[in-house]
Amino acid sequence: MKRLISIALILFCVEIFAQSGDTLYANFFVQTPFAFNEAGINKGIEIDILNEYVLWLKTKKKWNISIKYKSFSDFDSFYSSIKTANKNTFGMGSVTIGPDRAGEIDFTAAYLKNVAFCVTNGHAPDVKTKTGDEIMRSLGSMSALTINNTSLNKYVLEIKKTYIPDLKIAYKADEIKILDEIAKNVLCFGYVDAVGFWFYLKNNPGKFLKMQKILNQSKEELGFILPKGSLHKPLFAEFFNGPTGFKNSSGYRAILEKYLGAYMTQNMAVN
User: Fold this and answer.
1) How many domains are there within the chain?
2) Is 41 exposed, middle or buried (0-12, 13-18, 19+ CB in 10 A)?
């Protein structure tokens, strides 16, 4: 009975919005290739998927809606903006879906698989086994670089708690700054998302970096974030995962291939 009431309420609210018109506030953390501005145009994987979602709302739900974008260069500011936002707000920040944030925000259905890579300078020693002695030998004299309030930071904190109690941690604004610092300093390591690492190497072929594969974190999924109680959680699930959902369309694959190429798309597309 509660489920039927919730569905009826959602349909009622969508009908009201559709009749009156509305604005979808789209806050995004600037990070290529997920969401960025180029020559005055907002683009990226998340931006393109959101545009398809809004088109779906217009055609399938008859919702007369437009998008108003706001960019953020600091992840904490971006994340905080969603926690207190208007219910008609979408957050795009390549955010890992996890239970640690469930009390503060809602997640949409996952739009992309992800792996978090542990990255060191190319001259750093290899971590050959996932044991305390080996990790201390390889990383014990290093400092970790991370981004606050992210799953990447969680993995760094796990290294500190489990293997290197005296690990020094420095916080950076984004993955590019992390990778730039690691590339020039053999005494730094950090975690970055697979897509961010791939894109960085593509644009910086002269940088000497390597993955410490034994410390990589897999089975992550990325989702959009929403204020608690947003109507867009069930609506996006219908758009993306429904019987004729967007994830099964050629359009979804085309977006990923445009920004990631065919190989990365094959490995990271949500099935």
Assistant:
1) 2
2) exposed
